[in-house]
Amino acid sequence: MQQPAQRDQTDPAPEELDFGPAPLPLRRLLPFAVVVLVLLALGLVGTVGWRVYRASSPEFTLNDLNNSYAAFTTSSGTNEVSILTRDKFTEPPVEVGPERCSPLFQSTMATQFPSRALDGVLVYSIGSDQGGSMSLYTFRYTNARLARADYDQVTTALPQCRQVTVAMQDQQPRRMAVAPVEVTRDSGVRSQTAYLITRPDVSGRFSVHVLQFGNTVTWEYRYVSGSGEYSHQQAQELMDALVAQMRDVLSIRS
Questions:
Q1: What angle do CA 165, 166, 172 make, to 5 degrees?
Q2: End-to-end CA distance of the chain
Q3: Domain 58-253 belongs to what topology?
Q4: CB contact burial 129-161 (16+ within 10 A = b; e otherwise)
Q5: Which residues pair with 166 in a beta bridge?
Q6: What is the pLDDT of residue 50?
Q7: I need a surface site. Which of 45, 96, 116, 201 has the fewest CB within 10 A?
Q8: pLDDT at site 162
Q9: Cα separation of 60 and 233, whole Å?
Q10: Low-confidence ranges of the chain (pLDDT < 70)
Q11: Where are the beta strands (DSSP E) in the chain?
Q12: pLDDT at 53
């Protein structure tokens, strides 16, 4: 009698499902991971760097400046904000000797509109803790580079100009002395300088404070009556307050 064939006791191999190519070994993935991390780091540095640049060199519009100056007006209307445009400056230039000292006077005594500026704003007030009057005005430029160039002209001239002569229109030249004044930089703006202008035939003095912030250059021009000891504190506090206002306006717009 024929025996039935015995069944193979070996189980067949399980069927494998193909889900795509085999994963890469970890050592092959490492270079790609390094590249990705480097790109992410560069992106983060670039973002932070751009924010730092914008904070240190912001670009203001004319409306920004107008809003910044609104805090320095009064309800009585005695010191309203005025818009500065080139056509409003009709006074002829003054003659300054040496000529290299002209940047110290062109935007103050000479009331000249800077050749590279676009426009600006101004507040004028009479009376202060030291008497006299005060003009606070900011010129706006296309970019920070042009604003810096005009500011640098002032800082370059100041150390070279201690004794100058100034002839305004048809008047005889008058001798004037220029002396630097120490400034503080609590506002965080490094580009600022100040100086006093005195005349031997006048008891009062003219105080000038110049600050470059982003695409703007601000001038604070005061007549200080009397011949007593001069304190720059009030002028510095006003300039610091303006910088704070400009930053607030920019943060709201951003």
A1: 95
A2: 100
A3: Protein Transport Mog1p; Chain A (3.40.1000)
A4: ebebebbbbbbbbeebebbbebbebbeebbeeb
A5: 96, 174
A6: 36
A7: 201
A8: 96
A9: 27
A10: 1-57, 75-78, 127-131
A11: 82-84, 95-97, 119-126, 133-140, 163-167, 174-181, 192-198, 205-213, 216-224
A12: 42
pLDDT of residue 47: 40
Task: Return the bridge partners of 212, or none.
Answer: 217
Give the global pTM: 0.77
Contact between residue 138 and residue 120 where contact means Cβ atoms under 8 Å apart: yes
pLDDT of residue 170: 73
H helix count then E strand count, the chain: 4, 9
Token code pair at residue 53 = 């640049």
* CA dihedral (31, 32, 33, 37) positive or negative: positive
Q: What is the mean pLDDT of the chain?
A: 82
- The partner residues of 123 in beta bridges, in order of sequence, read 136
Give residues with Cβ within 8 angstroms of 101, minimum separation 6: 157, 160, 161, 164, 178
SS (H, E, C) 159-172: HHCCEEEEECCCCC
CB-hemisphere CA count at 13 Å for 119? 12
Domain residues of the chain, as ranges? Answer: 26-56, 58-253
User: How remote is the C-alpha of 168 from its chain's centroid?
Assistant: 31
